[in-house]
Specification:
This is Dimerisation domain-containing protein. The structure is a single chain. 47% of the residues lie in helices and 14% in strands. By secondary structure, the protein is α/β, with parallel strands linked by helices. The chain folds into two domains: 87 residues, Arc Repressor Mutant, subunit A, CATH 1.10.10.10; 247 residues, Rossmann fold. The strands form two sheets. Strands 5-4-3-6-7-9-8 form a seven-stranded mixed β-sheet, sandwiched between helices. A two-stranded antiparallel ribbon has the order 1-2. It is globular.
């Protein structure tokens, strides 16, 4: 592992990661599930026999786990002791600077059981992988309504992503003249709670499906914001956008839908806003040339195979075109926010 945050692989090892990627993921997932990274950190390193005892497994399985994670450079071996690598300390410990546990849980329990249907989804242009989650509805979000544990797991990860990414909007966009925000698909309210704390005079409405209301309302109440942050249930495809706002948040939604559906939804946003009202479109993005980055290339199959059967990680140029096609006459972008995200601002 280089000091500058890069990992160098031979071509042969790169191909091994591609072909045996599911094994690499399961090694990481097993390390987290068994609490191995935390145990190693707590003890300052451990021998093979100590790891086996600590994890409650036999030495042969422990040896396989340690060998795999060391070959992936997530562990280091110093004589007969194994310790966490610097990368593991930053990303795989709960006390790390960016713990990836919630994302890995979603990948293991929601995405991976479906992603094997990618080829069928590509050839049929729909989310064949949705069959991995029983229930009503044609999207992942509808199906999760019948699986409270998976729904909580899903929103825990979205809360983590939003907490990490939404602060970048707050640091770069001035909400000082905003009076009422509608957050479409606002989920558990993580983004608007942060917004409400930063701007104490703004009124906020979370607009999302009814099943999310208990999660959002509890978080809003726990934050002491129930007088300013309200929940309104509805379907963003079928129902009109709540009126009376001057700013609409369209955050982590654009990648779910087709370009045509995004334009339809954004037209409803445009209709709900007054003159000079603003729609903030904020998402993971690919580059305008369609060459990457890797995050966009690897996330896009999830949206086709499972989430909705029609979305992908679009470019900022796609987002701008959709905003203009929906009626916003003044459209701009802010691409210097990091985390593979771009903010597109559409003004009526």
């Amino acid at each position: 592992m280089a000091d500058n945050g890069t990992v160098t692989l031979t071509e042969a090892d790169y191909l091994r990661v591609l072909i045996h990627g599911s094994s690499a993921f399961e090694l990481v997932h097993a390390g987290l599930e068994l609490g191995m990274f935390e145990e190693l950190e707590q003890h300052g390193g451990m021998r093979l026999d100590q790891v086996a005892v600590s994890l409650g497994i036999e030495e042969q399985p422990a040896r396989i786990l340690l060998l795999g994670l060391t070959s992936l450079r997530l562990l280091e071996k110093h004589e007969d002791h194994y310790v966490n690598s610097e990368l593991a300390r930053r990303k795989l410990l709960r006390s790390g600077e960016r713990f990836l546990g919630p994302l890995i849980d979603v990948q293991a329990e929601i995405i991976n059981p479906a992603i094997g249907d990618l080829t069928r989804s590509l050839t049929s242009n729909t989310n064949v992988g949705i069959r991995s989650i029983e229930g009503r509805g044609s999207t992942l979000y509808e199906r999760l309504n019948g699986h409270p544990r998976l729904q909580n797991l899903f929103y825990r990860n979205m809360r983590d992503v939003t907490s990490y990414s939404f602060s970048r909007i707050l640091d770069s966009y001035d909400f000082g003249s905003t009076s009422h925000v509608v957050s479409i698909g606002g989920g558990d309210g993580t983004d608007v709670i942060e917004l409400a704390h930063r701007y104490p005079d703004i009124e906020i409405t979370i607009f999302d499906q009814e099943s999310v209301a208990p999660i959002a309302e509890k978080r809003v109440e726990d934050a002491g914001l129930e007088n300013r942050v309200h929940f309104r249930s509805g379907d963003l495809i079928r129902d009109p956008i709540p009126e009376g706002c001057d700013t609409i948040l369209y955050v982590h939604l654009f990648e779910i839908w087709s370009m045509r559906r995004n334009v339809d939804i954004l037209r409803k946003c445009h209709a709900a806003l007054p003159e000079d009202g603003v729609c903030l479109i904020y998402n993971f993005v690919s580059d305008d040339e369609g060459r990457g980055p890797l995050s966009a290339g690897l996330l896009s199959p999830y949206f086709l195979t499972l989430a909705s059967g029609e979305g992908m990680v679009y470019s900022a140029q796609d987002m701008e075109r959709a905003a203009m096609a929906s009626g916003f006459s003044r459209v701009s972008r802010r691409s210097d926010l990091g985390f593979s995200h771009t903010l597109v601002v559409g003004k009526k």
